[in-house]
Amino acid sequence: MVEFLVVSVPNKEAKAKIELLDAILLADKDVKIIETEQKSAFRIVTKLNEDDFLHLVFSSLPRYIVRVVPIYKTCSLNKNEVLASALSLLEDLNSTKKIKVELKSKKSLRSLLDPIKEELLKAVRTKGYELDVISPEVILYLETIGNKMIISLLRSTLPLSLYSLRDKACKFVKHITEEKGT
After folding, report:
1. Among 166, 149, 84, which Cα is nearest to 120's?
2. pLDDT tens for residues 154-169?
3. Residue 162 confidence (pLDDT)
4. Contact residues for 145 (Cβ-Cβ < 8 A; gap 6+)
5. What SS3 class is residue 103?
6. CB–CB of 43/4 below 8 Å?
7. Does 176 score more than 80 pLDDT?
8. What is the per-residue burial (b if ≥16 Cβ within 10 Å, else e) of 84-108?
């Protein structure tokens, strides 16, 4: 099972869930929606692989979905736990050298998370990766949802936001279609 974080337009959660289910229900009738502590965010658990799920969602060009992020790890907001979880994901990277670290959180958590991000950036450099915010190969993505941190490794071509979703959706669908040879 693969898990995703889906963030909707504020106060449009129900419409976002309907859009998402319309996009994937034929491919996965056992999909589960799990509420989170944050009103506009919910988790999706699906049997679809990451590329198929994202292809179906992005192909539908949703109106009420702001972000779709695969969840690789979840941990508390404890500094040591966040660092250990994030750095363990980097161990799976083979030839990747250029990394961007992106952290999304509520403004009220910035004072807690800024030192964590600084230490994470330092640890990434120490492991031999080049920090590149312009053209990274991979994005180490962290987002707070309630009192939890979700952590992902994203391809730099993955559309994350409503603003980039429509532009990148066509490129993503074309890329997946070419990879599958259909």
Report:
1. 84
2. 887 765 554 455 555 5
3. 45
4. 5, 36, 37, 38, 41
5. strand
6. yes
7. no
8. ebbbebbeeeeeeeebbbebbbeee
pTM: 0.83
How much of the chain, in percent, has pLDDT values that exceed 90? Answer: 58
Residues 6 or more apart whose Cβ sits within 8 Å of residue 55? 172, 173, 176
Q: Which two tokens stand for residue 144?
A: 């707070």
- CA dihedral angle for residue 44, residue 67, residue 155, residue 94, rounded to 10 degrees: -50
For residue 3, what pLDDT band results from cuts at 50, 70 and 90?
Answer: very high
When pLDDT is cut at 50, 70 and 90, the band that residue 28 belongs to is very high
Q: Where are the beta strands (DSSP E) in 25-147?
A: 32-35, 41-46, 65-70, 73-76, 98-104, 130-131, 138-145
Tokens standing for residue 14:
């129900």
Residues 137 and 130: their CA atoms lie apart, in Å, by 10
Q: How far is the CA of 121 from the CAs of 35, 93, 114, in angstroms? A: 31, 16, 11
- Name residue 121's amino acid: L
Give the up-direction half-sphere exposure of residue 88: CA atoms within 13 A in the CB hemisphere: 11
Question: 59 near 2, Cβ under 8 Å?
Answer: no
Q: What values do phi and psi take at 172, rounded to 5?
A: -65, -45
